[in-house]
Every structure is written in C-alpha cells, then in structure tokens.
Amino acid sequence: MDFLTLFSIYVAVVLACIVLVCRYSGQQQTPLTLVFDSISKVAAPFTPQWLQRLTQWSLHRLFHQRNNMFIYLHILLEGAVYVEFTCEVFGFCREMDTTLISLSVPYVLLALKSSFFYLCIKRDPGTVTKKRVAGQLHVYPYDRRLFHPGVTCPTCQLIKPARSKHCRLCNRCVQRFDHHCVWVNNCIGAQNTRYFLLYLFSVCAMAGDIALLTGDMLLHAVLRSGLLSASFIDADGQQQPVGPLFIIQHLFLTFPRIVFMLGFLVFVFFLLAGYALFHSYLALVNQTSNEWYKSRGYTCQHCHPTSVVDHLCSPAPDQSRRFYYGRGLLRNLGEIFFPLRPVHKKDS
Ligand SMILES: *[C@@H]1O[C@H](CO)[C@@H](O)[C@H](O)[C@H]1NC(C)=O
Ligand SMILES: [Zn+2]
Ligand SMILES: [Zn+2]
Questions:
Q1: Burial of 119: CB neighbours in 10 Å, binned 0-12, 13-18, 19+
Q2: Which residue from 3, 67, 189, 320 has the highest number of Cβ atoms inside 10 Å of its Cβ?
Q3: What is d(CA 186, CA 184) in angstroms, rounded to the nearest whole number?
Q4: Cα 216 from Cα 93, distance rounded (Å)
C-alpha cells in the first residue's frame, strides 16, 4: 500500500474516533458500549473472572463516573501541539520574517483558553441543593410540555426546577442543564454555559491560528525548495513536472511531525467550529441541548418504555417547536452571559 492510502486510512480512523467521542460523550448507550457488550458476551467463557471484572470496572469508571481522564488527554494533546509549534515551526517562521506579534498570538490564545477551560471545570453549573431549591424553582416557569411542576427527582429527593435535569455522572440535578461534558468533567448548566461557549470559540481560534501559521510555513518551505519548477524523468524517459501528490509526499518526509500536526489541527478546527456554531445557535434561541434533543420528537419513557427521554407525555404542540422559548436573540444571549440567579425569598 502506498503512503497516501495508509495516511488517509489513519486520518479516517482518528476522525471516526473523535466524532464518536463527541457525539456520545456523557450518554448511557453508545455504539462503543454496545460493541463492547457483545464482545464481552462472546469472550466471557474464555476470559478469567478477574479480567472481566477489571475491564467492567474501568469501563464503568471511564464512562459512567466523573473522572479526569479526558482533561488529562486534552492537556496532553495541547501540550504536544505547543511543543511541536515552539520547537519546529516557531524558529522556521522567524527565519522567514513572520513578525513576533503574529507568532505570539497562539500563546495569548492559549492563556485565554486555559482560563475559560479552568472556569468551566471549576464553576458550579447550578447544582440544585436543598438550600437553594426554593429560589431555583422560581427562575423559570414550567412549560408543561417538557417540564412539569411537582416532579421530584428520585435520586436527589428534591423538586425539579423547570429546565433542570439530573446528571447521572455527577449524581446531582443541575439547573438549566445543557449536557455533561467529559472534556471538562463537569455539567454545563446555568452558571457555566457562557464559559463553555467562550472556551469552544477560543479552542477554535487556537487551532485555526496555529494551522494558518503552520500552513504558511510549509508553503514557504515548498517555495524555497524550488520543487514547483522541478521536474523528473518518468519511466518512458519523458520530463514531467512534479504534481501536488509528490509535493505532499515530500513535505511529509521532510517535516513528518509538522504535517501530521497540521492535519490534526485542521480537523479539530472544523469539528469544533461546527459544534461551537450549534451551541451559539442554541444560545441565540434560548434552548439547551437537553431541550433540543427532547423536542426533536423523542417521546417519554412512560409512553414508550424503550425511549431514553422522559416527560413528553402531554400532546406536543407542533407549532413553534423550536423557537418556543425565544424572546429576541440578544436577550437570549444576554441570559447566557448574565444567568438568572435563584431568587432568595424571605419567609414571611
Ligand atoms: C428563555 O426561556 C424560558 C422558558 O423556560 C423563559 O422563561 C425565559 O424568559 C426565556 N428567556 C429569554 C431571554 O427569552
Ligand atoms: Zn437529581
Ligand atoms: Zn454532570
């Protein structure tokens, strides 16, 4: 197999993995767990008990409990990209007269991103607690469609405020629940959706900027090598100009790590840009991902025992399904950045 085929297969596999992780992070049933379940069923008679228990335990830890695995993975990948950038691209760019200012942009973005990342991890997303629940109940009215008054969370034993949901990984109810993000090991809820949005955009900017600088560097390297005007003698003894495939292969052989990093960055950029746009859309129409999934026509567990979503038993009104909550784009956005606080009423 030639090198390009191998490389594309490799890229496809990595892409598929990232998409799967993003799509199913925080959900109970994923293709991965399904595949794993069937494999372990088939392999069960041949594997020792302790191994079975160990894999079950680690899988449970990884996907059904809070853990910092993905935070470490995140930092590791980011560290690798920045080491590569600093050690190889930075020096080359200096030689070809890229200004220090544009070369320092990635580091500024890194600082920005890290602070949003930190806030996402550390901020309480709006946990429903015994002390605060009375105030939290008044933040949003029940719409009697997705959220009904008087429903108690069976685990927390507290009345569920409108727009809240119980997070199984964190084992708590969260106000204005969006989703549980494994990359920050925290729920995204009322109090940290803004940091999450800013975090997404800063990661995109970071990946995009480094990709541009690296692409620029590779372009210069090609121009400098004079490959564009070079030619080779083919099997028939004819002079042939070198094609794009040849140039890519040359670049890959000369700067393997840099080309690889560029591919990774372009990929992360498009993936996260799509995700960031989706979340911006949700912010603008005053919806959470949770509500978005629910109002896409999934039905309730009480009516359909196989459904994963609860509480959509009341006849779902067909009109204005999507823009149900909107009161103007700017005001919706304002609520993300200045989330409504639970009202603290003095008992009279
Ligand atoms: C967002 O939707 C909720 C409905 O649950 C509503 O109470 C709230 O006022 C809306 N916010 C804005 C800014 O429209
Ligand atoms: Zn709960
Ligand atoms: Zn959670």
A1: middle
A2: 189
A3: 5
A4: 8
DSSP notation for 314-332 = SPPP-TTSSSTT-S-HHHH
Mean pLDDT across the stretch 63-76? 86
Pocket test residue of 139, 282, 325 for ligand 1, highest count of atoms within 8 A of CB: 325
In this predicted model, what pLDDT tens digit does every residue of 128-183 receive, in sequence order? 999 999 889 988 999 888 899 989 999 999 999 999 999 988 999 999 999 999 89
User: DSSP assignment, residue 98?
Assistant: -
Question: Could you tell me the pTM of the whole model?
Answer: 0.79
Amino acid identity for residue 246 in this structure: F
Phi, psi of 231 (to 5 degrees): -145, 165
- Considering just the CA atoms, what is the radius of gyration of the chain in Å? 25
Phi-psi region of 320 (alpha: psi -120 to 50; beta: other; left: phi over 0): left
- How far, in Å, from the CA of 155 to the mean position of ligand 3? 14
The DSSP 8-state label assigned to residue 146 in this structure reads S
Angle (CA) 196-199-203 rounded to 5° is 145
Q: For residue 323, report the distance from its CA to the centre of ligand 2, in Å.
A: 27
Tell me, using a 6 A CB cutoff, whether residue 333 lines ligand 1. Answer: no
Cβ(301)–Cβ(307) below 8 Å: yes
In 3D space, the residue among 290, 256, 279 whose CA is nearest the CA of residue 203 turns out to be 279
* Cβ contact 117:188 at 8 Å: no
Name the closest-CA residue to atom 5, ligand 1. Answer: 140
Mean pLDDT of 237-249: 81
Ligand 1 geometric centre to CA of 5 (Å): 51
Chain segment 101-122, per-residue pLDDT in tens: 999 999 999 999 999 999 999 9
Q: Please report how the helices 3-24 and 244-254 are oriented relative to each other, as an axis angle in degrees rounded to 10.
A: 80
The question of whether 173 is a catalytic residue gets the answer no
Domain map of the chain by residue range?
1-65, 67-314+326-340
What is the mean pLDDT of the segment spanning 31-56? 78
Q: Whose CA is nearest to atom 4 of ligand 1?
A: 325
Looking at 93, 156, 170, 181, which residue is catalytic?
Answer: 181
